[in-house]
Amino acid sequence: MRKTKAILAVAVLLTMTTMVKAQSIQKSYETNPFTLVYEGAITKNEKGKVNIHPVTYKLNGLDIAANVYTPADYDPAKQYPAIVVAHPNGGVKEQVAGLYAQRLAEAGYVTIAADAAYQGASGGQPRNVDKPQNRVEDIHGMADFIETYKGVDKEKLGVLGICGGGGYTLKAVQTDKRFKAVATLSMFNSGMVRRNGFMNSQYATIQQRLRQATDARMEEAAGGKVKYVGGGSAATDEQIAKLPFEMYREGAVYYERSHAHPNSGAFPNSGGVYTVSSLLDLMSWDATDQIELIDQPLLMMAGSKADSFYMTADAFNKAINAKNKELFLIPGATHIETYWKPEYVAQALSKLEGFYKLNLK
Predict the structure, then answer these.
(1) What domains does the chain contain, in order, with CATH numbers?
(2) Suppose 172 and one of 48, 139, 270, 317 were both cysteines; which one would form an S-S bond, judging by CB atoms 3.0 to 4.6 Å apart?
(3) Distance between CA 263 and CA 164 in Å, rounded?
(4) What pTM was computed for the model?
């Protein structure tokens, strides 16, 4: 009993230390005119600097909310390479996807980060439907929009998928050959985890959860209440410390405290808020199905200490036809730390800049 209490005390201390460090760089959405929450976020558009352009466009009848970032001294009469950035599960464009989109714009790319359909500021009911086919279509849709944006060279289009957005990116590029260079950061295979649980922790309850998803769909079809996985109030310090995986502990701090945004649907203490009926599609899906169709250059990045790394390793090994594929480990980084910690973000961006420069000639 004493040992258990000691372990819990250490976990609380480590979590609180991470919390303090993260909160020390917090950029509240309330104080940013674009509601961006990451460090160094744009607060106003200025001539000669990277600018942000909130846009909306239609995708399968829904209004999609996105931010386009243009490089310093952007001239629409010129031609620029472009990067599509897909956000994590439950995330929104104002968080990590916006951070990487802005930094890549600083490197000379036109970039776009959009909220997934049914999520964030984008349209669609019920809220927080999380079906893989929708998320993959979101990536195709960002490509549709940005390749017609003034100044974009549509022959030089790359993509960066982060966390769940990384898994959906691997699926999208299997068939969408507009993407000439493919990169992922802290890739999360949503189908694998929703089916088996994180690190196979829910393997024994697959059939039970499928029955629950079936019942939830039946209730929705009958006009009843939409049921969700997770949600509720933000986790307490003690609840966070008791979470079984580091990714979920640090994710709770990131999404619920240090980088919280009102449009975000992520509550990592339960694996993220999404409709229970979405599991009918999620649990039969896998980011690595047909992954051999990827023949573009592929860069997969992950923290060397990330407990989610097994998903990146699995996908990387299965992508047998990807050109010049490379696995890059960020020394000392966990999954969530690649979202915000300056030294790890800098390493990821340095690698990305070299990768895109080489492959978007």
Answers:
(1) 2-359 (3.40.50.1820)
(2) 139
(3) 17
(4) 0.92
